[in-house]
């Protein structure tokens, strides 16, 4: 039980329970939540006692409901506080933060762009926290068409610093530009691929990216074996043989960005507090 007292109707979120049992996100405004409740919602979203509550309790889910409500309220004042949650992705393997904060930032909208850009550029932040901030920029560009150009320009400027970034972060920046169909950023993306500063297992190689963006009709070179890049050539060959024997038609080692569209989110199977995330002592 949290030692923080939450006033009504914010306290209703303490008993909303497991969102995996719900179809879509609830209408939190219908619970009576409004702009005047934003400070308490921010407090709940950041409440460490709630994040580490008993995994069988209802209240352990309340930070999720709080940040969802902040998204629905388009709470611009919540941007900086919610960015403070992103470290949990690297530190605590918190997939809920990684999956949902980009959605929430997308709902909040263009006001979040400067803070998100600064976060992605900050090399002191964890890799996956920066990836989530990058994904947030993509979400804003998709949800707010009038801000697409701003998001594309921001992602492109960040990608121009590719020499300073991890290859995975560069790949995720490229993936965001693909999602926004940013053909205007193709020259920058091409430079990054030419410099071999991209994890090709995310969106494929430069030819794959060109094809997906409509800049090329077909490959000129053989399709790379992304499985070999991930698990090594010997194991990749064994997996391919096994797939053929089992008559698996779809490749098991597609670029991750493509596979992500088809897989169930891990958060749908995992409890809010996993053993690996519980505080020690």
Care to describe what's here?
This protein has 281 residues and is mainly alpha-helical. It folds into 3 domains: 1-73, no CATH class; 86-215, no CATH class; 226-254, no CATH class. It contains 16 helices and no strands. The chain has helices at 38-46, 48-51, 62-72, 79-83, 87-92, 95-108, 113-121, 127-143, 148-159, 167-179, 186-194, 200-203, 206-212, 226-231, 233-245, 256-262. α8 (127-143) runs antiparallel to α9 (148-159), α8 (127-143) runs parallel beside α10 and α9 packs antiparallel against α10. The model is unreliable at 249-253, 258-269 and 274-281 (pLDDT under 50).
Question: Secondary-structure blueprint of this entry?
Answer:
Layout: H1 38-46, H2 48-51, H3 62-72, H4 79-83, H5 87-92, H6 95-108, H7 113-121, H8 127-143, H9 148-159, H10 167-179, H11 186-194, H12 200-203, H13 206-212, H14 226-231, H15 233-245, H16 256-262
Cα-atom radius of gyration: 21 Å
Helix share, percent: 40-55%
How do the helices and strands follow one another from N- to C-terminus?
HHHHHHHHHHHHHHHH
- The overall number of domains is 3
How many strands appear in the DSSP assignment? 0
End-to-end C-alpha gap:
18 Å
Helix count equals 16
> How large is the share of residues in beta strands?
under 5%
- Give the uncertain stretches in residue-range form: 249-253, 258-269, 274-281
Largest sheet, described in full? none
- Structural class by helix and strand composition: mainly alpha
Give the overall form.
Answer: globular
Mean pLDDT: 88
């Amino acid at each position: 039980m949290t030692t923080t007292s939450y006033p009504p109707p914010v306290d209703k979120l303490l008993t909303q329970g497991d969102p995996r049992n719900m179809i879509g996100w609830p209408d939190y405004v219908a619970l009576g939540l409004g702009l005047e409740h934003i400070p308490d919602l921010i407090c709940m979203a950041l409440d460490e006692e709630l994040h580490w509550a008993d995994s069988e309790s209802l209240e352990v889910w309340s930070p999720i409901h709080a940040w969802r409500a902040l998204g629905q309220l388009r709470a611009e004042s919540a941007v900086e506080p919610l960015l403070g949650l992103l470290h949990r992705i690297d530190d605590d393997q918190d997939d809920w933060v990684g999956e949902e904060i980009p959605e929430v930032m997308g709902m909040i909208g263009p006001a979040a762009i400067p803070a998100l850009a600064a976060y992605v550029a900050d090399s002191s932040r964890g890799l996956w926290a920066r990836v989530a901030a990058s994904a947030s920029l993509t979400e804003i560009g998709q949800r707010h068409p009038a801000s697409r150009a701003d998001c594309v320009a921001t992602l492109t400027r960040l990608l121009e610093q590719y020499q300073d970034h991890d290859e995975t972060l560069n790949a995720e920046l490229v993936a965001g530009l693909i999602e926004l169909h940013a053909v205007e950023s193709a020259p920058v993306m091409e430079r990054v691929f030419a410099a071999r500063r991209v994890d090709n297992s995310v969106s494929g190689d430069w030819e794959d990216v060109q094809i997906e963006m409509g800049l090329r009709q077909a490959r000129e070179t053989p399709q790379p074996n992304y499985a070999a890049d991930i698990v090594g050539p010997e194991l990749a060959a064994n997996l391919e043989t096994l797939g053929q024997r089992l008559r698996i038609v779809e490749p098991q080692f597609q670029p991750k960005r493509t596979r992500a569209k088809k897989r169930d989110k891990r958060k749908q199977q995992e409890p809010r507090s996993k053993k690996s995330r519980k505080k020690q002592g």
